[in-house]
Amino acid sequence: MFRIVFNPEIFGKKIFFLLIIATMIFSISCSSDSTEPEEENLKLIFSPAEQTVPINTEADYVIKVENAENLFGFSAEIVFDNSVAELVSNSVVVGGFWNTDLVEMSVIEDDRLSITISLQQTSNEDGIDGNGELFTFNIKGIAVGESDLIFENLLMIDEDGDAVSNFDGIEIISGELIVE
Prior knowledge:
It is a single chain. By secondary structure, the chain is mainly beta. It has a single domain, classed as Immunoglobulin-like (Sandwich), CATH 2.60.40.680. Helix content is 12%, strand content 48%. It contains one helix and twelve strands; from the N terminus they run H-E-E-E-E-E-E-E-E-E-E-E-E. A hairpin with a 2-residue loop joins strand 7 and strand 8. The radius of gyration is 28 Å and the shape is globular. The relative contact order is 0.26.
């Protein structure tokens, strides 16, 4: 016949050990390092963010996008101080981010560059995802001073004509030109 002996000291140690294990499991499962992917912000970036040039010298800017989802078209105006700088004619070049036939238009005014780039609807291509170079342009310093380069009337749309995912939370890194 078997006899069961209850030893409170051993039983207490087992309960204490199980509580420690349960607390560790709970802490790990609630930590901020969860395995679920975190949604990253859509970003639009002037690169470099700041440039300094002598008078009558051109500065090259690259407009980059990060974390795009289903980007089918981009339209914006880049506004600057035209007493400090002017856009160089025919300097807009579409970047390598776009991978198919495009519709492109750019208009240079005294204080702004209006640009539109979109995929052609007939190309049977879906929007583009990821990070890349949207376009480049050159601006020339014409007088000593500083000019911010900012986006106005920005649109980034998907193939249905709706704003791309996360457009409401877009992070924009503007540019600055310093002319000495």
